[in-house]
Amino acid sequence: MSKKLFLASLIIIGGLFYAGCSTIQQPLYNVEGAPAQSYDGKKLSQAQVEKAILQAGSQRGWLMKKVKDGVISGTLNARQHGATIEIKYSASSYSIVYKNSQNLNYDGVSIHKNYNSWIRNLDNSIQLYLNSF
Known about the structure:
The structure is a single chain. The protein is α+β, with helices and mostly antiparallel strands. The chain has one domain (26-131): Kinase associated domain 1, KA1 (TATA-Binding Protein, 2-Layer Sandwich), CATH 3.30.310.80. 40% of the residues lie in helices and 33% in strands. It has helices at 3-22, 46-59, 113-131, and strands at 25-27, 31-35, 63-68, 71-78, 81-89, 93-102, 110-112. The protein has a five-stranded antiparallel sheet, with helices on one face. A two-stranded antiparallel sheet has the order 1-7. A hairpin with a 2-residue loop joins strand 4 and strand 5.
């Protein structure tokens, strides 16, 4: 193999490796003002929304703690990674907001893609519990 072909191959392989690694970080995902209602559009109480959030979090492995009316703190530890979130809720909506993390490479804008997956899964589970009322 010629020296030029070898160097070109290294550059291409390096570029592919770099492109693959860049997908590990994604823009931070928060849930803002998600509707809290049952599948048939029935209005729920704040207590029902709270119950759905606590159950969904627990089912997904989050340690959920009610801080005060309308605010729940959630912590998830997965191997050497961890995240803490704050969920503000009312009878009509809820928001899931990043608070801090460990070993997820949060840089103020982007975070490890697993965090976003955890939040999407939690949001989906909350919606399922809300739909059960």
